[in-house]
Each structure stands twice: as C-alpha cells, then as structure tokens.
Amino acid sequence: MLLWFVILYLLxxxxxxxxxxxxxxxxRDYVVAGRHLPLYIVTATVFAxxxxxxxxxxxxxxxxxDGLKGIVEDPFGxxxxxxxxxxxxxxxxxxxxxxxxxxxxxxxxxxxxEVLTGLAIVISYLGxxxxxxxxxxxxxxxxxxxxxxxxxxxxxxxxxxxxxxxFGGMWSVALTDFFQMSIIVAGLLYIAYLVSDMAGGVGRxxxxxxxxxxxxxxxxxxxxxxxxFIAAWVTMMFGSIPQQDVFQRVMSARSEKTAVTGSILGGSxxxxxxxxxxxxxxxxxxxxxxxxxGLIGKDPQLILPTLIxxxxxxxxxxxxxxxxxxxxxxxxxxxxxxxxxxxxENILKNIIGHQSDRHFLWTMRLVVACxxxxxxxxxxxxxxxxxxxxxxxxxxxLVVAFVPLIFGLYWKRANTQGALFAIxxxxxxxxxxxxxxxxxxxxPQLVGLLASAGxxxxxxxxxxxxxxxxxxxxxxxxxxxxxxxHTQHNG
Length: 491
Known about the structure:
The chain is globular.
C-alpha cells in the first residue's frame, strides 16, 4: 500500500511539473519563470531551496550524533544565507534584470571573471545534486522493501526529476515546490505529533536531549574550535549566496518587494521547520533506543525512516515518505536546473556563439539532461554521507565567487584586477591547504575566504595591469542595456 501511494504521489508531482511546462515560451520563462511569481510561491520555492535530503535525513542524523554543534552549517548557516540574500542582495540584483548570477560578474568585471565564477558555481552543484539523487535511491529502496536496489532507486529518482525539470524549467520548479511544501509541512507536523505522544511528550524529549548535551552550540574558547565553528558557519551562509538556484528562485518574483520579502520569509520558515526532523529523529532515542544504538555507528541516516516503518501506521508512513520525497524532489529540481542554466548561458554560449531564443532554450534542456546523467553517475560512485556532500559543496563558491559579488555590489573601487586577484588568491590558498594541511589550525575554506578578500583589496588598490576598470557609475546603465537586450532577444 505504501509503495502504491508513493507512486500516486510521484504521478501527481510529474503532472504538475508537466502542466507548468505549458507556461514556458522562451528562455526567460524557463530560467526565472518570466519574473511572474507571487509572494506565496516565491516564499515556498525559497523555503524549498534547502529543505531536501540533508534536512530530513542528513541534519537529523548529525544532530542525534553530535547535537547542535554538529549542524552549524545547516540549518543555521543555510537559513541565514536566505535571510541575508533578502536583506542585502535581492533588491540590488533584481533591479539589474539578469538571467543568471554569473551575468553579473561579466557586466561588473569582464568575461574572464564570468567564466571562472561560472565554472565554480557549476562544480559546486555536483555534490549537492548527487546528495539528492542518493536520498531518492534510499527512499525507493526502503518503500519497495528492497525490491528496488539503492542504485536502481537513484536512476529512477533522477529520471523522474529530470522529466518535469527538463520541459518546465523554473515554472515546474516553482509550482511543484508549492505543492511539495504543503506536503512537507503537513506530513512532518503530523509525524511529530505522533512521535511526541509515543516518546512521552515534547517536554520529555527536550529534557532528555538537554541532559545528553545535545543543545550545546557554541564552541570551546580555544583557537581551533572557534575557527572551525566560524568556518562551518560561513561555508553555507556566505558560500551559497552566489548560487544560481538561490538567485533564480528570488529573481522569479513579480516585483522587487516580493523578491526581498519572499527570501526573508522563506529563510525564516526553513529555520523553524528544519528543527522538526531533528525532534522526530531524537525522539527515536526514547521510542526505540536499541534501534538507534544499532544504527548510530552503521548508518544514522536510516534512524528516521526506520522509526517510521517500525512504529507508525500506514497512513503516517505515507505522510512521512510523501514529505520526504517532496523535500528531496523540490531541492533536486532546482539544483539540477541551476548549474545547467549557468553552464549554457555563461560558458557554452561563449563557445557556440549567438543562437535564436528557441535554439538557446533547447540547448539549455540538452545541458539539463547531460548534467542529470553526470550527477547520477557521481552519486552511484560516491561514498560520502548526504550531510558531508552538501556541506562541502559550497566551499568552492565561498573562496571564488562570494568576495567579487559583495565587493562589486558595495565597493565602488572594486575592479576587474581586484576580482581576478580575489579568485586566484582564494582558490590557490584553499586548494593548497586542502592538499597539504586539511586538518590544520586554520580551516582551508576560511583561509581561502580571507585570502580572497585580501586579493580584492590589493588588486583593486594597485596600479591597473589587468583588464579595464569598471567605473561604478557606468555599471547600472550597462546592466540595463544587457537586460534590454535579453528582453528583446526573448521576444
């Protein structure tokens, strides 16, 4: 019965996604839904940005193991990312009417900076999307009672997400996100209600977690612990700001105010609801301590689904796995679309030259299909946990793309030479430390971020040897000309 309900749910999701595809008439519709989305859908799709496999399975498993201090990156860093985007980035970027976040780097700096940051953005999605594919394989294997292997489940899940993302683009992502967010909220609240009753009430679960030290958050006042804490927090808080999936979800809003408000609301809702899977998973310590003890060292990601299968009625199982599939698919669709669009717009277009809007749209769809194959193969051959894959995904954008973005928006003296210095210094220092001293006092990505900031300040202050400076007063006129070209190009 559970399997048939899951199949029904998938068919509904695919139908919504394919219906959304009827609204796609040009590249702008495909990438940013024609900038037509109302506040409630923007809020839902921003909320769904991070609410994926790592939230339901990864974070909950990490919390059972290490408590709050083990989940600094997500949900604390990730939710702050979305709120910071709303407060400091959404309005400025929305006014520029761009197709991708990498378009900003070309207009503010030059083509070289666009390609370098675009490549960093595309690469960062490899682990992120693969984590969602791994989780889909896990779910299909569980609900089929093992009849579908983990590997077969990954391929089935990737094919389903590809089906509606391929044709509907951001319209499919947005409409399915709204449907799936409703399932997530209803399903997880219902499961939390049942589990709290089985565990003896919310108070007993909270008291037990507190006594076990699971609410310890701040690091010990030692240099190594403090630096590791800061590095973990900024990796997703800053590293995921210059990301195409965040950008296109916010830029799909029908107005600047909607973009700002939707980002802040979506990030805030994500932070609140991310704690529900933590509560459910930790309740398993009281409901079935033997099961938790057996899985904690083997595969803690199975604690939550095992609790549901062993102790919940069929309706609750349907609600949980519906919510889990909703979380995974809503994240997978957006993160499959984002790198494909970035690669097509900011890298491939420079190689193949001008295309009509119709051909450009089909090129993007072809790249989406190719990227789906690549991440599925990567997922099939990866041994990392879901949480590790997600938390490591944004180190490259942290050290390469964040500093050129924020300095470009907020410092008039930032120029092309500074951006190239920032990218070179950040990337080189991070890679060297990752290769030769990854467990040193200073976390490699934190050194990379600081080196990137130093490179920007140094390069922008030195006599100009690389490229031409971009006067800040000419930036907006140039960007608006670019936006007008895109509008005319898209009919």
